[in-house]
Amino acid sequence: MFTALLFTLGIAAATSFNASAIDNHNNKNKLPDIGISGYSVLSTDKELQIGKAMMRQLRASQPLIQDPVLIEYINHLGNSLVKNAQGVNYAFEFFLINNNELNAFAFFGGHVGIHSGLITTADTESELASVIAHEISHVTQRHLARRLESQSQTQGLTMAAMLSSVLITLVNPTVGIAALSASMAVTQQASINYTRGNEKEADRVGIALLASSNYDPQGAASFFSKMSTKYRYASKPPAMLLTHPLPESRIADARQRALNYPARPLPPSLGFELTKARLKSRYQGEAKSNISFFKLQLEKKRYAIKAAAQYGLALSYFENKQTSEALQLLEMLEKNDKDNLFYVDALTDVYIANNQANKAIKMLERLNLFMPNNQVVSLNYANALLSVKEYDLAAQILQDFLLVNPGNFIAYDILTTLYRTQEKTGLMHMSKAEVYALLGAYPKAVDELQTSYAFLDEQPLMQKRVKARILQLQEQENRLKRL
Q1: CA end-to-end span of the chain
Q2: Do both 224 and 280 map to the same domain?
Q3: Are residues 200 and 104 in the same domain?
Q4: What does UniProt give as the signal peptide span (predicted)?
Q5: Could you list the residue range(s) of the whole structural domain that residue 63 is in?
Q6: 355 strand-pairing partners
Q7: What gap in Å lies between CA 480 and CA 62, rounded to an integer?
Q8: Which is it for the CA torsion 251, 76, 8, 200, positive or negative?
Q9: 3, 225, 266, 324: which sits with the fewest CB atoms below 10 Å from its CB?
Q10: Considering 67, 201, 203, 216, which one is annotated as catalytic?
Q11: Domain identity same for 346 and 273
Q12: pLDDT digit string (tens) for 149-192?
């Protein structure tokens, strides 16, 4: 739907901002077209390596939302689509960026990013799913690799250029567009035509995936139409529409394609509505104005699901330090839906703030029995244990979780804090090294490991682990340089 900014700019920089890149950049909504080419330029293994490198760059430079509840939701939604997609070669990772711009993007290795502003603008889960389905199709069709293949005969490609272009575009799409426009050449029209063809294919594949995943196939047309109406006369439309105009023909095509599938009017999704409420109350606006917003929703019954409006109000109360009001609402919501992790997460925060962490621990201990290593449960459980100085159990929970989820940034961050509090200096530096590694800062990670080695002189086994990890990180860095 809204072609990955990453896709477009990644190619643009990789081709030194040539004319072909312009069309790619003009494809913020582009979806991969059908075909199996792209392997001559980029193997699947190399694609995975580059994707991981890009993800580290994004963690280091962009305001990613490190919120286990929201990460859990967006990955559940994304994977409900992935399981019905064709050509899936690896696990997908979905993540959120705290940015009010309407945008979503995909890049190498099954990484799909969604800006928070896009979610809060969507009215239904099917509208949001239509955007994600579009981006998934970029990946499964290997659109970026195929695009690089088409340009490789005449242009040199560098990893550094690709990464820098991705970051430039994400930080400021307008800057990226200007850079591309400055290098337009006579091949621009052919490049645009190539892109438009991909877009048509992208829409078709995305809508088919939407329908096969039991979402409303009209979700894409609905969101297209909303965007067109809202920004038709805007002096400053969102970056997505600056790079990818939305002609009426595209909206009509989306509606027509959706008619090929059975109509599926769906009731409001609680998970989607809770996600919107959480984004607004925690990441947008001021607490007092959000309290007024959700109160008005409840008074006028302007909500899709009442519980979601109450949840938004409770979070807004908490942000405004009104913990008693927040507690009353959240305990009522959790009582009616005990295993809802949105409520569990928020209640944990309130209990800790009210010096009632033992209540949180009791709640999370029960959930941990039948939801072991769930990121919401494990991270909240460890945090609650940390607050009552149950350091050893908190460390065990985090270590068990990291065995299953070795790339979890939040877990390593909490573990670093925990070891620092315990004055376990060697372990603290080891954990901090993993935080740096996830940010792609390999030299700093190695420095942390070398520092940790000096504090582990009475633990020879741990020192061997440190040496092995240093070699692993150095090899990862060298492998990147060889790409």
Answers
A1: 30
A2: no
A3: yes
A4: 1-21
A5: 5-258
A6: none
A7: 21
A8: negative
A9: 324
A10: 203
A11: yes
A12: 655 544 554 555 555 554 455 444 444 434 333 333 333 433 44
